[in-house]
Amino acid sequence: MQISDLDLQIWRGDSRGGELISYRVPVREGMVVLDAVLWVQANLASDLAVRWNCKAAKCGSCAAEIDGFPRLLCKSPIAEYGQRVTVGPMKAFPIIKDLVTDVSWNYEVNKQIPPFTPSEKDLTSSEPWRMPQVDVDRVTEFRKCIECFLCQDVCHVLRNHDGKSVFYGPRFMARIASLEMHPRDTLDRRPLLKGKAGVGFCNITKCCTEVCPEHIKITDNAIIPLKERMDDVYFDPIRWALQRLGGGQKRGTR
Amino acid sequence: MSSAAYETVETDVLVLGAGGAGLRGAIAAAESGARVLVVCKSLLGKAHTVMAEGGVAAALHNVAYQDTWEVHFADTMKGGKLINDWRMAELHAKESPERVLELERWGAVFDRTWQGRIHQRPFGAHTYPRLAHIGDRTGLELIRTLQDRAVHTNGVEVHMEVTVFKLLKADGRIAGALAYRRSDGSLILYRCAALLLASGGAGKMYRVTSNSWESTGDGTALAYDAGAQLRDMEMVQFHPTGMVWPTGVRGILVTEGVRGEGGVLRNKDGERFMERYDHERMELSSRDIVARAINSEVSAGRGSPHGGVFLDITHRKPDYIKRKLPSMYEQFLKLAKVDITKDPMEVAPTIHYAMGGVRVDAETGASTVPGLFAAGEVAGGLHGANRLGGNSLSDLLVFGKRAGEGAAAEATSNSKAAREKLNESEIEDAITALMAPLDRPAGENPYHLQVEIQETMSKYAPIVRDGAGLEVGLQKILQLRERSVVCGTGGSRSLAFNPGWHTATDLHSMLVNAEALLRSALERKESRGAHARSDFSKTDEQLDDVNFIVEKSPDGMAVMPLRRTPLPDYLAQPLHQSYARYTPEERE
């Protein structure tokens, strides 16, 4: 059932530049923006580049900017917009073509984060682990992340100040939080947080939380607790004084 | 056209696909000492495994103490209507608990019982609650854990957004593969000593499917072209519950977990119709039965307004629904404007899974071509005529590991010499064929051909098939093949991220899968599991031990029956034993 036509403006181009091109798309009930983009691809512009996979907001492939806002194309019903919608690529990453950007930096960052590391005893024990649901619930929120990188796209440290060399970005703050708060993990990632991960660069504008399609409270539940953990070791004046007096805990260990 | 330049990359084991089976296989191969290269069509972590919702089946007996591998084995065989590879079903049932616990040691988190053990949820045709899960996003948990493990394993490298279009042989064994980068169309020649196919299914050959653009059946087609045997290709699973409304979201999966958590199916008269189809197991009957029941209700005019039935979980508390089925709640609220804590969902069957695939050796995942291995959905055998929910994720873990080890063993034996002897003219011909659509941009639009394939399969190989329809479907698919070999790209000659060209190259895979399905379905003159025929509506006991094998022959595609060795006594006994029904002691 066709309702009306949509004026879909899609950014077409590559690293040399590009422009918004207007396409007329027949709208059907319940259509999401991704459907409209794929209709254009099948009927008007066969070489229109767009990433997508599950079309059910579970894989995070189709991240783009709709009317300037970072969104998943598959989770944005056209009915929520007017007769005219613009779609462009994420701006925090180098463009490859049309709506496809080079997100490989994120995969490089992930490699630098030391993985889950249980104790030797836990690792070699033949007994299945037991843990309470409440401990599981704490990390579940961060493990919901579908790696759409919309939070990275909107983060002003990465987007406006090109701070990719000093800050890992919200996605990887959530990743580090999921490891740090895992009940069986033993590694201390606080030196990493203070150093290369650069948690101090976040100044809590909460834009990442706002755009997260999984509704992860990245700032409140991941970044702020991680900042507190780091502060405990590095910037707590009382602990600092104790350490100067010769006692206290060694840095970077638990 | 002269052959374009290509880059050459060497590795021991080449893995095609980065879903659960590919990643688990890569880890296993690397841990066995092989150099591993994983190639995937999408970005890492986006493979179809991510869509798995309900859980991973393993007889951990954390919820029902009576559960054992024997019961899991029996459930799998009965669900598969006895044409499963019984050795695979045995290994799967025995090893899945260890694979799940191992995953936990690699950092995966699962929901817990009140005692702190891994919780297990009831699922269709599993005698006991058996599915380890985390809410309704178990697949995401599994793939993220394996992804992190793989990138931190020495010897594993990943090439993202690369499509393999040809397997290469030398001395009668697999020795390489040709691929192109999706971003710029540049070519890569992989030289390898063993190759593990873990490329998933072929759901994209149907119109209404829960599968993504990637599921074009590349692995089965590549293996077939390389001379490997396929099996059970007539067996494709309709998941009983996909979304039906609005049209834009038709086919998106609604997890069986909804029924596992107590959801009931009703027709438009409010009748709980499963009573009439499977009085004992009701909504938690096997998927083939539930899907056909829904189909029958709709055909009889008892369907919902948009051609489905109602799935109702509103008797559960809103908080419980949001905790146990968070992504279903979100999905319906956002895409259909339905609050599932207050209103029923509208659901209908959607194409979901290919039980058939490459014929493999149960122990090692080896195909019938030396050096070629397969695991996961692309391999056939474990699930027989119908897959039980949750058995797919455990399949990936158990046989991903086995096939990874099998491929590594093959690569470390003295078989590396073959990769130096690849046939140059074969490489050139394959590249010429790949590039051909770019030379005729004005040829037929590949997207439209894809839609025609989908409509043909939906119409002539539907949930209930008949000989005459299958025959018509086959003729149409053969005609589509002729049109597709001369199709264009939809208008562009560009090598840079050109999905029109990519779609043109995928058509071949879809057509091989479609033809294999139709030919096998014509041969199986009975109804069994997912394969229902109105002209042969009964199950034929004579075919209990028969699988249909598909193989490339000089005259085209050949289908032949293969008789299996009978079940050994130690497996026949658990299969025929009856098991006490599970009654929950308490509601958590």
Assembly form of the protein: heterodimer
In total, the number of domains of chain B comes to 3
Adjacency order of strands in the biggest sheet of chain A: 2-1-5-3-4
Structurally, how many domains make up the residues of chain A? 2
How far apart the termini of chain A lie comes to: 63 Å
* Radius of gyration from the alpha-carbon trace of chain B, in angstroms: 23 Å
The number of helical segments of chain B is 16
Spatial order of the strands forming the largest sheet of chain B: 7-3-2-11-18
How much helicity do the residues of chain A have? 25-40%
- Overall average pLDDT of chain B: 95
- Give the termini distance of chain B in whole angstroms: 67 Å
Give the ordered list of helices and strands of chain A. Answer: EEHEEEEEHHHHHHHHHH
Folded structure, characterized:
The complex is a heterodimer of chains A (254) and B (588). With 254 residues, chain A is of the alpha+beta class. Chain A contains 11 helices and 7 strands. Chain A has a 5-stranded mixed beta sheet. In chain A, strands 6-7 form a two-stranded antiparallel ribbon. In chain A, helix 7 (170-180) crosses helix 10. Chain A starts with a strand and ends in a 10-residue tail after the last helix. Residues 250-254 of chain A have low confidence and may be disordered. Chain B has 3 domains: 6-236 and 353-420, FAD/NAD(P)-binding domain (3-Layer(bba) Sandwich), CATH 3.50.50; 241-351, Succinate dehydrogenase/fumarate reductase flavoprotein, catalytic domain (Flavocytochrome C3, Chain A, domain 1, Alpha-Beta Complex); 424-538, Fumarate reductase/succinate dehydrogenase flavoprotein-like, C-terminal domain (Methane Monooxygenase Hydroxylase, Chain G, domain 1), CATH 1.20.58. Chain B contains 16 helices and 23 strands. In chain B, a hairpin with a 5-residue loop joins strand 9 (173-181) and strand 10 (187-191). The radius of gyration of chain B is 23 Å and the shape is globular. At the A-B interface, helix 1, helix 2 and helix 4 of A face helix 3, helix 4, helix 10, helix 13 and helix 15 of B.
